[in-house]
Queue: 2 jobs
Job 1
Amino acid sequence: MALTTSTYQITDLFAERARNLAPPTYGTELTKIITVSFAYGLADPILFPHADLAAASAAVLAEEAPIALNYGPPSAQLYEQIILRLQAKGIAADRDRLIIGYGSGQILGLLPDVFVEPGDVVIVEGPTFLGVVSRFVHAGARVITIPVDELGMDVDALEETLSDLKKQGIRPRFIYTIPTFHNPTGATMPLFRRQKLVALAAEYGVLVVEDDAYSDLRFQGEAVPPLATLDKEGWVLYVSTFSKIIAPGIRLGWACGDPAIIERLAMFKSEGPVGPFVSHVVARYCATGKLDYHIQELIACYKHKCNLLLEAIAHEFPSDVVALRPGGGFFVWCKLPPDISAKALLTAANEHGISFLSGTRCYANGQGDDAIRLAFSFQPTEKIVEGIAVLGAVLREWR
Ligand SMILES: Cc1ncc(COP(=O)(O)O)c(C=O)c1O
């Protein structure tokens, strides 16, 4: 049967928000063979706790299969294990204050459902984790960017913005921040800035969304209290994940905060919390007490890789490329001199099989051509050294 040409196009059916989406651009990355990619914050697969997860899975299948493999709620023990971990950080956590989801990204992506009407103001950092911020943009939020320096979000600039908005009668819906081992800069906000941020939230009546994906992976310096422990009035929603400390593929993250927010988030999470089977497996694994030892192994490995990357940068990059040293996490942020464009550098690096994240992929306001993000988490050590040597040669050739 011949296909008829219709005057209708399937794309005419798209909602405006889908029609206006620009496909992601990866420079030339997708058409070149990349031998060393520093682009994405993937976990090091060598470090996954295979044997312990296999043992926990076998035990669940032997002892709990009728409930773990059926429709039903997640394991109650998983809630308990997460609550214990939160309480160990000093965060007020209980069952009513906790929601579990398919990764923290899923829960962060639900925030606009609860908080944002088109045109509402949401405050984010610049640079930031665009994977989440793009969800706020798609929901029609008016996203305002506050600069980040080596101490995290500039809270004085935030204060000015909040005050200006108040004069216009605008109350932002929330402030999205990554205060510890920031993605992409690796910066950690010191206590005095955290105290000011929490005080501003209370003064202006704005929710702070604290994305704490990386703080367990500290390889340098003293722990700084989460914003959620400084907040006495309930203005902080704390969000975290097992992705960086167990494995991203288990897709388990959570948010802890005011029960009214948790209840609303749960209403929009219409498929229910998370898969029962994985929840039982991870709860069992956590209950063995091995996770904290595992985290120590991760820290040793990521510390080594980070040091190696920074040493290689010091040897190979022109001295006016400035790398920020993170105290933990997955990323090193490099500020480029004015004559080097991150996007153009990426195209040149791709020709030599090297990839990284251009800073332009980390801002909601179009900035970022003056910086690049290098993820050291995934590549084996010899590839880190090899990749930075090639990138250094590309940079020198540029000159
Ligand atoms: C800052 C930050 N928040 C959230 C996420 C999402 O993590 P999850 O795997 O829990 O969805 C990531 C993942 O890279 C991240 O870097």
Job 2
Amino acid sequence: MSLPKKSPTKKSPQKDAPPKKLGHLAVVTGASSGLGAEFARRWAERGYDVALVARRKDRLEALAAELEESSGVHAFVVPDDLSDPEAPYRIVAAAEALGIPIRVLVNCAGFGTAGPFVHEDSRRIADEIIVNTLAPTILSRLLLPALLSAPGGVLLNVSSTASHQPLPGIAVYAATKSYLTSLTESLWQEQRGTGLTVLALCPGPTATGFFEAAGSDAFAVGSVATIDTVVRAAFASLDRPDSGPTLTVGFRNRVTGSLASLAPQRISLAIAARLTSGARG
Ligand SMILES: NC(=O)c1ccc[n+]([C@@H]2O[C@H](COP(=O)([O-])OP(=O)(O)OC[C@H]3O[C@@H](n4cnc5c(N)ncnc54)[C@H](OP(=O)(O)O)[C@@H]3O)[C@@H](O)[C@H]2O)c1
């Protein structure tokens, strides 16, 4: 697979404008759409060069051109399919070859499947497990030494409120996100005091391409947040000194998550099954 690199657009520096480029790299997966694209925009606004990862190369190239124009950073496209277990190794090799210190990893790529487990496509759920769990785990492991090499590194794993309880009807998706939240919380504790910020971001339903990719309304339970709300909340948490390991976005989502863990298991499972019933018919 080729790992094309986008040449930086030469821009004439504006007089008296503050220097934009820090010479630090943010690697963002899922950057072709939705939350990942917005995370890439915000890191670029903060002066980070960005490496944009997803399958749709045309979208990555369009975003790279936009970011170079708007933020004056270098934006590189790294098209790859994260359902290939080897993809994280290729992506890290490509990012390291850029020679820019890697300071940020945003694991945002992910997708959901829905419906009764017995009817789910076994190959699609295998891809879902790899993209949502194996890929962020290996990317985190491979890039952690770079993120730890100087204070101020960030590891942001985009999980979900679906990680807060088992969800019949979207069982595999919920299980993958439970894994990701659990992993990230452990890493938060392991890395305390190192200067690395680790965060499991748990948005509820958010207006992105996610529902279309999933082909189901089962995920759109309750109110749907905007991308801006979710990404702003994430950066507010990242900017707070000593923020916690997990951020659940939205008061109602936090209450629902707490109630799910307190309720008796049979009741909690029955309520969850009703909420995701759009996936069961
Ligand atoms: N939207 C929600 O309601 C919601 C709620 C909670 C959590 N989340 C999480 O937020 C994250 C971002 O999703 P989104 O809402 O922004 O949805 P989205 O607009 O569908 O974006 C998903 C991103 O993941 C990438 N991706 C999917 N499969 C991939 C693969 N095999 N290889 C490489 N990249 C792949 C897609 O890129 P390509 O298709 O170009 O490969 C796309 O950039 C996901 O982890 C999702 O689970 C979303």
